[in-house]
Amino acid sequence: MKAAVYTRYGPPEVVKITEIDKPEPKDNEVLVKVITSTVNRTDSGFRSAQYFVSRFWSGLFRPKNRVLGCEFAGIVEDTGKSVIRFRKGDKIFGFDDNNFGGHAEYLALAENSAIASMPSNATFYDAAPITEGAHYALGNIRAARVEKGSDVMVYGATGAIGSAAVQLLKYFGANVTAVCNTKNVELIKSLGANRVIDYQTEDFTKIDTRFSFIFDAVGKSSFGQCKPLLTKNGVYISTELGKNGENIFLALSTALRNGKRVLFPTPTITQEDILFLRDLFETGAFRPVIDRDYTLDKIVDAYRYVESGQKTGNVVLKIVE
Ligand SMILES: NC(=O)c1ccc[n+]([C@@H]2O[C@H](COP(=O)([O-])OP(=O)(O)OC[C@H]3O[C@@H](n4cnc5c(N)ncnc54)[C@H](OP(=O)(O)O)[C@@H]3O)[C@@H](O)[C@H]2O)c1
Asked: For the structural domain made of 2-131+269-318, what CATH number should be given?
């Protein structure tokens, strides 16, 4: 089968389109014919090993999983003999950042992993990008224990995580102030934000509202900068480690006292989360924002674009045209 393979850590160019063996599903696995995947910051992080710590999962000296692609949508082509939840021909989607494998024509994964049948109203094109940004957003929102009616801020609302966070926070009943660039103000309003601040024309740190939760979905702010905007026991979360890894240390030190806190939750995903996101898609409460698409042959260009830091929402990878 055709796959985008990387055998060493490095820039987008380490990824090559190659023929490799089609996976054989084990007894508890489904074999999926992948129709769409995405190229996202999780794939980029594992490929570049920019943060050395990722190598403890992906292989210390070289990658142990040679095919990336943590989210996908496709069709079940075969099932292992103990599989009961899925049948040949089912349209499924899901997320796997342990074994990856979506950047290939076929993928095998356990039936109890973070996979589910596709939303009834989704195409393969919209189904692949449902999970990556949204599960990070969901994990952080849950960690912050956001209450209905509370004022929250999403800084960097145009990324995959930020654009999902705005929609999920609205679903949970929060009043959302979103910060983004000029060109995406209307888009972010359309996702339900109550107020949109254009960071190119307004300084978000100067506004009067105080927030119980500030979520920096692009990791460009700091706790010091956002602290004055937090309520007494307000929570700050960033998707990045911050300068000199300060968000880890701040999470530890602020946990020891009352008052404004930094959290640094570990992202997790379960099949229940996938089912939850599927329900939100079916009711229209959540739609992944899609910027553009690339074919598998153009995956290096897709990585370059994702790593420009300029994507709006998600980048779809078409495995089957
Ligand atoms: N290491 C990992 O495994 C991993 C996995 C997932 C995510 N992450 C991190 O999570 C963050 C978000 O990822 P993502 O995929 O959701 O989004 P992303 O692709 O990093 O976000 C791109 C968006 O952020 C906006 N942006 C850039 N600089 C900004 C700034 N200073 N203020 C406000 N907006 C800004 C960009 O638009 P403009 O520049 O035009 O405003 C663009 O629309 C990234 O930092 C990423 O590295 C890491």
From this structure: 3.90.180.10
Q: How many CA atoms lie within 13 A of 24 on its CB side?
A: 3
User: Measuring from each residue's beta carbon to the nearest atom of ligand 1, which residues come in under 6 Å?
Assistant: 40-42, 45, 133, 156, 158-162, 179, 181, 199, 217-220, 239-240, 309-312
pLDDT digits (tens, 9 = 90+) for 19-72: 999 999 999 999 999 999 999 999 999 999 988 888 988 999 999 999 999 999
How far the first Cα of the chain sits from its last, in Å, is 15
State pLDDT tens for residues 236-291: 999 999 999 999 999 999 998 889 999 999 989 999 999 999 999 999 999 999 99
CA–CA gap between residue 246 and residue 229 (Å, rounded): 19
**Pocket perturbation via mutation, ligand 1, pick of 38, 39, 41 by most ligand atoms within 8 A of CB:** 41
Q: Which of 127, 128, 129 is nearest to 159 (CA)?
A: 129
Residue to substitute in 54, 218, 237 for testing ligand 1 pocket (most ligand atoms within 8 angstroms of CB): 218
Ligand 1 centre to CA of 307 (Å) is 9
Q: Burial code of 191-212, b = ≥16 C-beta within 10 A, e = fewer?
A: bbbbebbebeeeebeeeeeebb
Domain ranges of the chain: 2-131+269-318, 133-263
Nearest CA to ligand 1 atom 24: 159
What is the average per-residue pLDDT within 211-222? Answer: 98
Q: Which class does domain 133-263 fall in?
A: alpha beta
